[in-house]
């Protein structure tokens, strides 16, 4: 009774609100001012680097093109306000364009901010805020106080956040950052050195073309007077010689022309040749590292000698399985946490991964594995249909095996010493099973030729069969087997 009294005295509702982990921001300047500048990433990375441009577009366009479904519980909805909202988030953007921008911001900045406009308590429009215009208002824990939206350095709007749940009109999508409690880490930050290297190599090659496609050098003038002493050029002579060299030797139209120096002039090479510096190889290495940070197979962005996968189809499948689908699932999870509850507690968004054309190869492999398992008697047809996303069928729960298979350790059919194979097979059926396929023993009281039946002659149809017992031989039997009592009546 004392134990029951203890439970009676225990409170029924003992909910407790706990604070988020506390953080400390050691900065005297506004928090959003960091060393990584979104404008620099967007300009020097996305706008001026072909590899970054291709990687961002490859991922963003692939993720934005994945179809989505809306479910109410386990029922897929054909029409719903949430479906209309995702297909047309705002008057300026369709769904594909909106989500491509969301993913692009996330890849370039590590952060993407979405905001909804409500009508009657239900979101009616979705918009995106440029990451460099959003300032996070820090608090003393991991949940910020809110978000400031700034234009030209002035705060034009402030969006508060719930101090316990973090709920706000602004949804902050971000990558994980080990050194920041509020802002995400962009793949472009990890690849920034390689991006700079790739850009500088490209600029160097342009400079080579502008300067006659040759590295810099020096024209050495060694004149002497009548007495054999060295002479110095005047400023006018020096400028005249330099202008003459620029006019006759620089520029792409003069590339490859031999240099003719009059008088006591000599040309001295001042730099290494492009072959010595191996610029092309360094450029390809930088491009590989950039693609590695974004999770793009190198052969998809045209880097020579980077055939990691057997063909482009396998490389694209790896891109979706390792990069695009995990990113889309991250965003889908955030949408279900932020947007879907506004339309009902049982509403959820789900991406249709099987609709991706690149996943055809994976579906083909799954189909082949499932059908092979059915043929080998490992799974039933309904189990196979469930794995393929199909509805079950009547009679599909039985597991079938090939008719020419015998239990391991069973009677071998003789094929030599003049014994006919057909006769040997018939003699095998005259012998009783040693054990059932599940390993349980066959009762000794049963006669020979007790075997699995292939027609309507079953123990369950026999007059001696009664609730799993054979009254004729006084032994337990299985309903789908047959003994020589049937043979006696044939």
**Distance N terminus to C terminus?**
72 Å
Report the sheet with the most strands, covering strand number, pairing sense and barrel closure. Answer: 3 strands, antiparallel
Alpha-beta classification:
alpha+beta
How many strand segments? 16
Q: Helix content range of the residues, please?
A: 25-40%
Please state the CA-atom Rg, rounded to the nearest Å: 39 Å
* Gross morphology: elongated
Estimate the mean pLDDT confidence. Answer: 75
- Record the strand order, biggest sheet: 2-1-11
In terms of DSSP E residues, the strand content is: 5-15%
The number of helical runs is 15
**Stretches with pLDDT under 50, minimum 5 residues:** 6-15, 26-35, 413-419, 424-429
Question: What attributes characterize this protein structure?
Answer:
single chain, alpha+beta, 15 helices
Q: What would you note in describing this structure?
A:
The protein has 15 helices and 16 strands. It has a 3-stranded antiparallel β-sheet with strand order 2-1-11. With 490 residues, it is an alpha+beta fold. The longest helix is centred in the middle third of the chain and has 27 residues.
